[in-house]
Amino acid sequence: MQDFDPLKWAGDGPDTGPALGDTPPEDYPFPDGRERRKGADAAEQLIPAEAVRVGVVGAPGSTDEVVVDIAADAAASSLVGRWIAVPFSQDDAPAIAVGQVTRVRMENDFRSIGAVRSAGSHGGVLPGGAADDLYQADITVTATFRCEVEGGRCHIVPSILGTVPPSGTEVFMVSDSMLERLLARNADDLFFLGHAWGGAPGGAPMLPTWIRHFQKGEGGAGDTYHLGIFGKTGAGKSVLAKMVMLGFARHQGTSLFVLDPQGEFSRDAGGTRSAHEGFALPWRDIIEQQTGKRLRVVPLRSLVLDTWELFQDVIGQGVLFRWLGYGKGEKRALAAEHLTAILRRERRTLPSLASREAFERVFEIVREEDFVKRIYVAEEAISRNIQRALDFWEDEEKREETYRVWRQVTALFDESRQGSVAVSELIRGVADPGKDQVVVLNLSRE
């Protein structure tokens, strides 16, 4: 068989795609030179000649799930997880439904008879055996394609499964060459996530997808969208996430910001990932050499929070107002807002908050009646919180423990730390289409 040219099949040039001429819709020529089929067999012309036959469509079936009677020579194959193609005719045009095997079951009508099962369980010798077994597979349909005629040529386009393929229709394994045919018009947009799950080793096709950037224009979706990856431990969530991010990184002018809670992506980038951790992705080589982007790994200890809005959020969720007995949620958030406003009016800088003088000034503020009245209305609550602040300050052990925690928190805002990187700088860099970079923020304790 001649080599398949996806551009020829896609119809992307002046002399591309199989010419149909006056051929009726049920009589399409096949581009690899095979003899044409007619009538109900026309849909099978979309299947490559080397495709492996699995069986035929059985019953019952629906537009969501197709039942396949597995051929005897395929019954011993590992089929669960494999992709299957069902060629059929829909709206007088050849079409292919593609789906995944979700279950394989075996039936034996003779051995299902109660008396026969009883005799077998008591050691009786029964006629018949595995030769009478019927294997069936359940196929969940995930995509449908049809042949659309344009200018006398056949173009494969996405479609929906609007009818049930008839029983007896031959069913085939999906292969890379078949996917190449079906997706040829989008060849430039395809990104492969690895091999599809299931089947014998080396037999699964590559798993294609489209990963578009958020902007309009070439390769863009024209809007933002969200992806979620879910699965049990060891299912491959991190591997898939890495491949998806590489798909985004292919687009010029698109930057990525990766939050790395376990340090896995950071170790990949530095080449320090151990063998027992599984799939390792050479981030730096791929990102910098193949996409031209800059890869930047920032450890958490180097991160500097550099806005008063971040300070207000951190203080509102921190231990200060919790220790002082402020109710969580709205009360603590309101207290943090007022404290931040006072410190800003005093023209203090974020790096200066780590000093002992700033700490003592903060406790002066939270002991003042005017401050507490902004949070609470009831006189009892006001008096109680003022007294709690006074008692807390008079207890030297508590005061010093609070100062220690205060220093740790305010150190996050100290830009004088060696190797520090400001949050706003990272965000501006990722948001600037001219920077074209991948930032990995290592949130682990490494």
Features:
6-stranded antiparallel beta barrel; 21% strand; 446 residues; elongated; alpha+beta; 3-stranded parallel beta sheet; disordered N terminus
In words, what does this structure look like?
With 446 residues, this protein is an alpha+beta fold. It has 14 helices and 14 strands. A 6-stranded antiparallel β-barrel has the order 1-2-5-4-3-7. The chain has a 3-stranded parallel β-sheet with strand order 10-14-11, with helices on both faces. α7 (308-317) packs antiparallel against α9 (330-345). The longest helix is centred in the C-terminal third of the chain and has 16 residues, at 330-345. Mean pLDDT is 79; it is low at 1-40.
Compile the SSE list and pairings.
Blueprint: H1 6-10, E1 53-57, E2 65-70, E3 83-90, E4 93-107, H2 114-121, E5 134-150, E6 153-159, E7 170-173, H3 176-182, E8 190-195, E9 206-210, H4 237-249, E10 256-260, H5 264-270, H6 283-290, E11 294-299, E12 303-304, H7 308-317, H8 320-323, H9 330-345, H10 356-367, H11 369-373, H12 379-394, H13 396-411, E13 421-422, H14 423-431, E14 437-442
Parallel strand pairs: 10-14, 11-14, 12-13
Antiparallel strand pairs: 1-2, 1-7, 2-5, 3-4, 3-7, 4-5, 5-6, 8-9
Q: What global shape is seen? A: elongated
Weakly predicted, low-confidence segments:
1-40
Strand and helix order: HEEEEHEEEHEEHEHHEEHHHHHHHEHE
* Total beta strand runs: 14
Strand content: 15-25%
Number of helices: 14
Kindly report the oligomeric state of this protein: single chain
What's the Cα radius of gyration?
Answer: 33 Å
- Class based on secondary structure composition and strand pairing: alpha+beta
Distance between the termini: 55 Å
Q: Which strand order does the major sheet show?
A: 1-2-5-4-3-7
How would a textbook summarize the main sheet?
6 strands, antiparallel, barrel
Average the pLDDT over all residues and give the rounded result.
Answer: 79
Percent helix range: 25-40%
